[in-house]
Amino acid sequence: MSQQLDDILEFHWMMDMLQTVDVGIVVLNRQFKIQVWNGFMESHSGMLPSDVRDKSLFDLFPTIKEDWFTQKSKPVFDLKTRAFMTWEQRPYLFKFPNYRPITGSESFMYQNITLSPLISATGNVEYISMMIYDMTDVAVGKKQLEAIQVHMTEAQERNQLAR
C-alpha cells in the first residue's frame, strides 16, 4: 500500500474513534462556533453535527453564561494552558438528561469538562477542544456516602443525648 492510502486509512479509524468514544468532544473556534461535535454529544443532545456546525455555542445553549465561559476559555486560547470544570464546582455545562433514568437517582448528567488548546503548526491557538466526561455515577456515589455520614453523625449525637 502507498503511504497516502495508509494515511487515509489511519485518518478513517481515528475519526471513527472520535465519533464512538464515550466522552463528549467539541471543538470551538475563537468566536465559540462549533467545529466538531462527536457521537456522544449527538446522542445526549439530540443534535446532529450538521445542526450545530458553525453555530454559536451560546445560541444553541443559552444557559451557558457567555461572559463566564469566555473568561474560562481565555487562558486556553492566550496562554495555551488547559482549564478544568468539575461537577463539584458546577454540576453540568450541558444539561443532558441522565441516560440511566431507571437505575439513576439523578435527572441530569453530572459532568467534568476539560478545555484544551489546539495548537496549529504555526504555534497559534485558533481552536480549543472541550472534553465532556459523564461523572453521574461518581457524583451519585459521593452524595450517597455524604448522606450516610450525616445519618451516622446524627445517630451518634442522639445516642450521646440519650445517655
UniProtKB/TrEMBL annotation:
SMART domains: PAS (SM00091). GO terms for biological process: regulation of DNA-templated transcription. Gene3D superfamilies: PAS domain (3.30.450.20). It comes from the Bacteria. Residues 12-78 form the PAS domain. This is Sensory box/GGDEF protein. It comes from Alteromonas naphthalenivorans.
